[in-house]
Sequence to fold (362 residues):
Amino acid sequence: MATVTIEGVRKSYGRTEIIPPIDLEIASGEFIALVGPSGSGKSTLLRVIAGLEEIDAGRILLDGKDITRAEPSERDMAMVFQSYALYPHMTVAENMVFALRMRGADPAEIDRRLTAALRMLGMTDYANRKPGQLSGGQRQRVAMGRAIVRQPQVFLFDEPLSNLDAKLRAATRLELRALHDQLGATSIFVTHDQIEAMTMADRIVLLDRGRIQQIGTPQQIYREPRNRFVASFIGSPEINMLRGVLSPGAGHPSFAGLPLPDGLRVTAERKVDLGVRPEHVSVWTEPAPDRWPFEVEAVEFTGHDAFLLGKTPAGRITARVDPDSENGLADRVTAGQRLHVQVQARHVLLFDPETGLRLPDG
Ligand code: ADP
Fold:
């Protein structure tokens, strides 16, 4: 186990700055997800930590020791790539111990580590197979095994689950997190998939154009996003974002001229981006003073959720309805129907339209 400290690290390719100076402190034994849209610099940052890319400025420390100039092989880190890059002519066992052998490790020790890793991964019976005789999930395990036998202080994962189908990916997520806990190493995991980040990580580092937008637990990132980008990136379906004027009224605040229910403190009139997640919009068949007219445009049924997409006078909104609720609304509703929505004011997130930063209430 080891801490990883990134101090003022900067990386450019030619004149293009990919990572402006960033600081990041990763605790020993922590599982960190680097998440962000494609091209946000996640892989670059991971490769910088691995020592596969030189940096223009800053320092990288492993347990307080400066490794900025250390070769990748001297860093006590093991990387698992998206393309497993297994040697096709070698068996599972040979693939897993190849790097150790090359380093001239003690054969008895190699054997001990191999046996342990195969057992941990449930791959003991496959030790003598070639990669071509394995499923995608099993190949992924071999790639994991190759990292595990090295007993590194830090695991670096670059989208290692991307080549698996959705079902296997969900199962492998859990296994990988359990492995991390068992090994007690520090893990840094790159993904563009917010669900992967949310379900596996202790803390998420959300990147956009090389800049850290927010660092926090999945709960903090979801419930207390620092800015509009974070709020919109995390959450599926995406948070509703409406632009309009928020007014205190005479004790009855309103947004875009529409009444809001109690729960939001509004002290002064101002233009905002009002964010509200689909699960925080309730749908009604009957009107009421704090409900907004809602014309349904589409219905999405996913099994455990149903989402209604439609128009309100303040803009388009997606609302989650419980598909199993007693009133059966989710099954009855059709496009074109006129209903009413209520924005749950205490869950509303407000953002400055200019800077995108989250505002305190009111
Ligand atoms: P992500 O992993 O978030 O998708 P990357 O770290 O791969 O993003 O890339 C970040 C940016 O750096 C992208 O704009 C990409 O085009 C650029 N980039 C990555 N590698 C190189 C390289 N070797 N040379 C020049 N530009 C690169």
Remarks:
- The chain has two domains: 4-229, 239-359.
